[in-house]
Amino acid sequence: MADGHPPSSRLERWLRPGSASRRDVAIDLLWLLGLALVLMGAGFGLRDPWPADEPRFALVAQDMLRSGDWLVPRVGGDLYADKPPVYFWIMAAAMALSGSTRLGFLLPSLVSGVAVVALVYDLLRRVRGREVAFAGAFVLLLTFQFAWQARQAQIDATLLFFTTLSLYGLLRHLFAGPSLGWFYVGWAAAGFGVITKGVGFLPLLALVPYAVLAARSWPAPVTARDHRWWLGPVFFLVAIGTWFVPMMLVTSAGGELLAYRNEILFQQTVTRYAGAWHHHEPAWYYFTNVIPLLWLPLIALVPWLWPRWRRALGRDAASRDTFVAVLLAWVVLVLLFFSVSAGKRGVYVLPALPALAMAAAPWLPELLRRLATRRLAFALAAIIAAALTVGALYFLLATEATARAVEEYGLAPALPLGVAALGSLVALGVFRVRDGWLAYGGALAAVLVTIGLVVYPRIDAVRSGRAFMSTVAEASRDIDELGLVGAKEQYLLQLPRPSVNRAGGGGCGGLVRGDARSRAARRRQVARAVLRRDRVARDRSRESSAVASRDRRTRGGEVHRTRRPASSPLVHSVECVNKFSALACSPRPFCQNPTRVRSGPPTMSNHICGPACAGIAPRACRDQGDRIARCPPKSRRLVVMTYSRSRPTSCRPSSSSARVLPSPASVSTSS
C-alpha cells in the first residue's frame, strides 16, 4: 500500500474516473439525491415550527393564505417589515400544495438544499468534468452547516438557492458558454435574492474579480464579448420590481403602510448592516467561531488545498486558473462583507460555502483518494462516535441530569445519544479507514437521522405551541372570547378559532399585539401599567389584611384559601411572562383552580389562574382554590388582566383598531 494511494475503495468506484456518459451523470445524481434526502430530509413532517423564527415565518405564510394579501407580509395581523416577501410566498405555496403546515413550512429549505447540490454538480460538470462535479457536490453535502441549514425553516436556505443559482448563471456563461440566457438568469436570480433577503445581490460581486483578471489577460474559456450584456441589470431590476413596484404603489397611501415601507427599505437594510442592534460579535467571529467547526470536513482539507490554490493564483501563466480565482475572490468578498458589519450570525456566511466547495473541487478527486485525508475523515467520524458514546454513558449514570432533561424536554438524552453512537460505530466498522470519507458520512447521517426520527417527535410538544394551545382549547370550550397578551407566534400559529388583532394594544379581546416598530415600547407600557395596578391593588388589600390573615392557614407548606370581598374585580387569567408567554384574559373565569400548563421547561411555563388573583405579590398568583401557583424563577413579571364582574365592553375592539382574520380551519396545521 502506497502512502498516497491505498487500494481501491467504494468511494473510488463511485467516482468512476473517465466515465462521462449520460448514464453516469444520472447515477451520480441519484446517489447525491439519496444522500441529500437522508442528511436533510430525515424527520421531515414530524414536527411543528419551533421558536424563535420558524413559527413567525409560518404564521406570515399562513396569514397570506387566509387573507389573500400576498404583497405586504403580516404576522398575527401586524405588518411584518423585517424581511421581504419572496420566502413567504414560497412557503405559503408549499403549504397550499401540501395541505399541511408541518410539511409546507420545511419544504422550501429541503428543496433549496437539493437544488443547490444539483446546481453545483452541473456547473462543475460543464467546466471541469463529471468526476470533479461528483466529488465537489459530495463534499458539500457532508459539510455540516449546509446539511443542517437545509433542515431548518429559515430564510437562509432559500437565499442560498438564489445566490447559488445566480452564480451558476453568471459562471456558466463566463466559463462554459457563451450562454446569454443563463447570464440573464444569473442577474434575475440575484434580483429575487434581494427581495428574499437584502443581501441577495452578493453574487454580482463575482463579476468584479472576473473583470479585473480579464483585464490582466488571465485565461478564460469565453473570450467573445457580446454587446447585449447590459440587459443583465435590466433583468435584475425587473425581478426586484415584481414586488417593489406594487409595494411602493400600495404604501404610498400613507399611514402604517408608509411606516412599513420606510422600515423595510431603510431600517432593516442600511441601518441594520451599518448599525446592527443585536448579535454583536468581533470582526474575526466567522474565522474563529463558525468556519473552523461548522464548515467541517471541507475546511479540514485546506492544508492540502492551499499549495494548489497558490499555484492556480500564481505568476505562472500556464498554471493559472481563472475559474478557481474568481470563486476564491468571491468567497473572500462575502466573508469580508459580513465581517465589517457589527451584527453577525453564523448562518450569514452560508452563501460562500458552495463557492468554496467548487473552488476546491478540481483537486478533490485526488485528495479523496489520499490515505492521509481518509485517515482525517475517519478520525473525525471516530470523534463523533466517541462524543456520542460518552454523552450516552454520562446520562445513563447521572440520574439527576437525566431527570431534569426528561422534565424539561420530555426525552431522556441517553436514548438518542445511544442510537446515534451505535449508528456511528457501525459506520466506522463497516467502512474503516479505507473508506474514511464514507465512514464520516455514515456518522453524520447517524446523528442527523436520529435527530429527525427520534428527537424531533419526542420534544415537539415542548418546543412547539401545539400541545399548549390544545390544552387551552379544551379548557375554554365554553368561552366565547379569549384574550392573548404578548402571545408568541408559536401560539398564534396553532389557534383553533378565528382571531381578532387588537391594533391599539391593552384591554382584552383578540390578540393584543402591535406593529413591528412599537412592540418593545408596548411591552414597556404594559409592564408600567402592571406595576401601577399592583400598587393600587396592594393598597386596597391592606384594608382587608386582618380578615385575610385569619382565613389563612398553613398545612404542610401549602398556603390555603384567602377569600376576598365580593366587590373585588375578577382576574380571568394570569400570565407568567417569559420566552413562552401566552394567556391573558377571557370574559368569564377561565378556571376554578390554578393550572400549570407545560409549554416548555419549568423555567418557561405558563400558569392559568382563576378569579380573585388581584393584589398579590409578584411571582405568585392565588385564586379561590387551595393552592398558590408559583411562577417560574426566571419569569420577570406577571401580566394580570382585571375588570369588573360584568361583561367588559373593552373586550370588543372597534373596527378602527382591529383586524379580523378568518377562521384558521382553512389552513391545516396537522401532518
**Mean pLDDT score:** 75
| Beta-strand content bin | 5-15%
Number of H- or I-type helical stretches: 26
Calculate Rg over CA atoms.
Answer: 29 Å
Largest sheet: 5 strands, mixed
Alpha-carbon distance between the two ends: 53 Å
Q: Give the CA-based shape.
A: globular
What's the assembly state of these chains?
Answer: single chain
Poorly predicted residue ranges: 503-528, 543-671
The spatial strand order of the largest sheet comes to 9-3-5-4-15
Would you spell out the secondary-structure blueprint of this structure?
Elements: H1 10-15, H2 22-41, H3 54-67, E1 74-75, E2 78-79, H4 86-98, H5 101-104, H6 107-128, H7 130-142, H8 144-149, H9 155-176, H10 180-194, H11 207-215, H12 231-251, H13 256-274, H14 285-294, H15 302-312, H16 322-340, H17 352-360, H18 364-369, H19 371-397, H20 399-409, H21 414-431, H22 436-463, H23 466-475, E3 483-485, H24 489-492, E4 499-502, E5 510-512, H25 519-543, H26 545-551, E6 554-555, E7 558-559, E8 570-577, E9 583-585, E10 595-597, E11 606-608, E12 620-622, E13 628-630, E14 637-643, E15 658-661
Helix pairs in contact: 2-6, 2-7, 2-22, 3-4, 6-7, 6-9, 7-17, 9-10, 10-12, 11-16, 12-13, 16-17, 19-21, 19-22, 21-22
